[in-house]
Every structure is written in structure tokens, then in C-alpha cells.
Recover the amino acids of this structure.
């Protein structure tokens, strides 16, 4: 007798079969992750230093924090698009 979890996973596998990635695809995805991790770190370091320098100006600080969140989200979106391109090929 299957548990509810096993039944749900079985139904999910039927509706959306999992894809097996080749070693080349896995390597490409690791390379993308490495590249985008570096971009994230670069933007965080830069913007966090700008936030620290804007101490005392709450409007500038808030603006820089919003910019940081926005840029990180944009980088993550680009990362996922590239990874999906690899998975789809």
C-alpha cells in the first residue's frame, strides 16, 4: 500500500516525466551556476558597500536596498532562463 506522498509523486511523474540530463548538460549547468554566483557576489559587495556609505541618508539607503533586491532577482531570472535552455536541449 502506497503512502499519500508516493501516490502524489507517481501522479506527478505521469503528468510531467522527469528528464535525465547528460554529463555535458550537468557540466554546463554547473558552469552557469558558478558564473552567476560570481555575478551575485559582485553586485552584493558593491551595493552593500554603497549602502554602508549612505548611512545617515535613509532615502538613499532604502533606494539602494531596493536596487539590490531588484538586481539579485534579475540575475536569478537570467540564470534560470539559461539553465532551462540547457535542460530543454
Amino acid at each position: 500500500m502506497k503512502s499519500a506522498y508516493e501516490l502524489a509523486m507517481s501522479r506527478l511523474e505521469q503528468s510531467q516525466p522527469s528528464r535525465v540530463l547528460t554529463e555535458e548538460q550537468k557540466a554546463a549547468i554547473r558552469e552557469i551556476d558558478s558564473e552567476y554566483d560570481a555575478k551575485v557576489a559582485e553586485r552584493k559587495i558593491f551595493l552593500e558597500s554603497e549602502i554602508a556609505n549612505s548611512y545617515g541618508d535613509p532615502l538613499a539607503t532604502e533606494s539602494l536596498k531596493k536596487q539590490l533586491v531588484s538586481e539579485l532577482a534579475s540575475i536569478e531570472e537570467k540564470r534560470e532562463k539559461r539553465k532551462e535552455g540547457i535542460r530543454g536541449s
Summary: The radius of gyration is 20 Å. The chain has one domain: 20-88. The mean pLDDT is 91.
